[in-house]
Amino acid sequence: LTKMIGSSDPAFRIAGIKVAQTFFEEDAAVKLLRKMDFKGAVLVLTLPPKAENDQVRVLTEAEIIEQQSRAVFAAEVLCSMADVGRQKPEKEGEEPESFEFDLTQTDVLNFLAVTLVQVPQAEEIVGHCLRKLASNQQHLPILLEAAIGDILESYFKTVKYEKPIKKEQLETWKRSTRALAHTADCLSQFVKYEYPCQVDEKVMFSVFEKASDAKLLAEMTRLFFWMCRHCEDIFDFVLRCAPINTGTANSSTKAKLEKSVNILADLWNDRCLKVFSLCEAVDKNPELGKEGSEYHKVVCHDPSTGELLGPEEVEARRRYERRMLCYLCCSLWICLPAPRLRFQLKMKEVKRLDAAFLLRDEEDDVFLQVTIGTARYLLDNRDALAVPSLMQFLSMSLLKLLREDGRLDPHPNVRAMNETEFHLLMDAISVLAMQRDMQQHLRQVDMWKHLRQLAEVEASVKQGTEDEAIRASIMRVVTCIALHPCHQDSIGTFTYPPREELVKYLQKQLADTNDMIVKSLASLTLTAIDTEKLKGHVADLQPMIFTLLDWWFTNTTSLFDKYKRAEELGKEIPENFLVSQEQNLVERVAASAEDPRFKPEDLRLAKFELVSEPRETPLSVIQSLPYCAPFENVVILSMMARLALEPKFKTVLMDRPAFVPALLNAISNGVWPEAREAAGIIANLCWGVDHVVCWLKFDSATSVAVDSANVLHPRRTFQPPRPVELGRGLYGSVWGQEFVQESCILLHPDGFSTEKVPSTLAFASPSDTFRTTSVPYQGLDPEVTHFMAGEEGREMKRAALSIVCWFHWPLCEESANQHDHVLLQALAQEDNSKRTQIRVNKDERWVICDDRGTKWRIRTPKILAGWHMMTLVSEAEGTRFHIDDEWSHTIKNAWILNSFFVLGNEASPQNDPGKKPFGLIADFRIYARCLNPQEIAWMASVTGEMIEKGDRRFPDWPARELCHPAVIDALVRGLAVPDSCVSCLRALGSLATFLPMRSYIYGVCGNQVMGLLDSPLPMVQRLACRAMANMR
Description:
Layout: H1 2-5, H2 10-21, H3 27-35, H4 38-44, H5 61-81, H6 100-103, H7 106-118, H8 123-134, H9 140-145, H10 148-158, H11 170-192, H12 201-210, H13 214-230, H14 234-241, H15 253-284, H16 294-298, H17 311-335, H18 339-347, H19 367-379, H20 382-385, H21 388-404, H22 419-432, H23 436-444, H24 447-462, H25 468-482, H26 499-512, H27 516-528, H28 531-534, H29 538-555, H30 560-569, H31 577-592, H32 601-606, H33 621-624, H34 630-644, H35 647-654, H36 659-669, H37 672-685, E1 692-696, E2 715-718, E3 722-723, E4 737-738, E5 743-746, H38 770-773, H39 782-785, E6 786-789, E7 796-799, E8 801-809, E9 821-827, E10 834-840, E11 846-849, E12 855-858, E13 866-875, E14 878-883, E15 887-892, E16 900-903, E17 920-927, H40 933-940, H41 944-949, H42 957-962, H43 965-973, H44 978-991, H45 998-1011, H46 1018-1031
Antiparallel strand pairs: 1-17, 2-5, 3-4, 4-17, 5-16, 6-7, 8-13, 8-17, 9-10, 9-16, 10-11, 11-12, 13-14, 14-15
Helix pairs in contact: 5-8, 7-8, 7-10, 8-11, 10-11, 11-13, 12-13, 13-17, 14-15, 15-17, 17-19, 19-22, 21-22, 22-25, 24-25, 25-27, 26-27, 27-34, 29-34, 34-37, 36-37, 36-43, 37-44, 43-45, 44-46, 45-46
């Protein structure tokens, strides 16, 4: 055989090569053939004959035909060599012998490239050979270096795929069509693994429009799918695909859009769905596939030639039709996030987009893997996240796959997914579980029960050798569900998963596994749900908080680019990269503190130097996993968001120099769940500062119903109050609103209580309504917000509260000597009646009405004209009443009704509404704690200069310190995704309560926020409305 292969006689050499092919199944023979340079012997056949002086001469026509024949033979041999070792099972510790290395050598690739272009009879064989080589990802860079990619791109544009009219051209056309299918498959491999590749998009859609060969269409849809997956803008990409030449009469955007969508819709409705429905019906009832039936006419005949197909050909065609349906269906999903594409597809009545979920993997086709992988991609795609209906469709489909899998439904007829499919499914569900709305949906379907069942099945089947990837995915889903604010003790009346069961599960995971991902998630989740621990003293909890922050600083997804770049360069980033930057900043500011020009706010401004430039393209959760810890980060930030709501932790968090910059980097550069939690922390830092649960500053003419405590949503009723006259305002400024006839502010439609503070602005999910989020917030400082009071032996727990209001004396002239002046009105919960709590009667006495209905008339010293501060404190001894800091009076064992309804007027159905205005007021506050005399004295001494300078004793100090362009710009970038959009809107609306930043916020995002008023998501719409109102 060696002599035959090395023979100079071409016929003898060809015979030897044919014999050698019969040994391809034997590893030892393949090894020997490689040693004797078998591929070289094959290529020698293709060399042209030379003249006697070894010069290349012009070949005769017969010699050309002979050369082409040998080229075809050589291509066939190389194609068969590409199969060697591919189908053999690997022996333990050994790989089967193959010719892969030989076939990727320059001489072979050059031959294939030349033959593809110059020998039409070999184009299909060469295309098939290149397809086999390209199926191995490791070969792709080698193929590119040999310019195979360029050859394929050129061939892709020039091959003729339209069916000829002349019969003698049919065979050539069939061969070219099959070669084009192989070429499309090769190019899709380059695109899939993101190797540089220039594909003529118009050719794809021309094929969709004019071709009918099942294999060609299947490979083209695969190429289209991977190009959709990796394009930056799906709308622009689909426009470029329209087979319309630029500059023609029909080259407008509208015409291109209609052309592209029409081609896709026709291919889907008239080809994919039609064949799929027929095959589906025949699979259920074989009688429908008889000769003469529609199935027989459509499926059993070649759509290109009309010839009747044999059984094997029918099965092959059905396989290609399934491939086409799978890839086109997934491509259409990717088109849906683009609003104009979604609208056009809807107009074309594109339906049954769930068909891909009905397919299962077979032979070389991984339908289910492609389908689940596309779903995972879309669940992690910021544009797709903005389409709630798409998210709901994908979530329901994935959960159905999980419920119907053989692991959870051990029925003999139910197929269990293979490991790859199931890993993909659990990855997709874990990403799905990071969405706020989906967390509530997973509770509604009792996902905890399914996850426990799955964990038990895995443990029983694997018997202590559970798949760590599956275990980690289960842990991720459990963690995400448990951390939803509505599923925690702080908000709502229930917890999910049940806390005892959850704690046992987490503790078991800590004890049973060595996987660090599972251990860290379990440990962090146990810490996050331990509410009792968080009630401890701040000094005791601060080391734990800083340890968690240091861990997050190291693993935040905002450092993804730095970690990836370092790996590519072979360098290492210090684990404490952000911490070291923080220390350098503190040292530099401390050194400059010796400069007499140094100001205390210099450190506050300097920390924004740690803010990074935003990424150009959004980062996905799956993309970040190899370098960062997105799920663990979300757990930590969720816990920090909970702590940020508590007044005692706000200073601890804000005093950490790197904390706010790290939050901004997470919003701009991190994954969307981390961005949501980071924006939520910024919003929560502005919520209920110093236990202030209502703060109407009235600091401008338009700020009438703006709650600067960021807790309530007050609204004006009847007529708006009258803005203060210029020069008459509080603090020498424009603070103040004058309540006149029929003007008042509704604090809360159901009455607002300091012991049942609504959590309306404490968290938000896109689909929530105010009814969902208005459940009482459970604080971590009950000893501050409550006290025991009453007669000895009959003491009861009462809510601590303080009311502070600046008023201008004399009061409203419109009601002088005619009516009382009502400052605050309550709503009794037991009978829904309205009671006046604080008023000034006709003889200028203050009247306080307690919770038993008793009216206490208080005569104060003569009040001089001008601004004065009224303070009412409900404490253990009773109710303490102050005018400024000079006079006070205590009503023993009497407490006002803790249910505040209307401010500035009365609104009683028994009397004429709005006829008892109080007059000019400003800086109205309600505290959920008792103010002491020293605090009252300081408030009474505040001046306009102190307001401008700022002080952490002012409850808006977090908003003041966060009002920096870097903060606003980062929050605006977070508006793109509904999940983070609600938190960013909360934060922007809260920061807009600080007057100096309103114009900047409106200038940066006013139009964008206005557009969100039309969002289909209730909470996005409502928070956009609040933000616009606060920016006025």
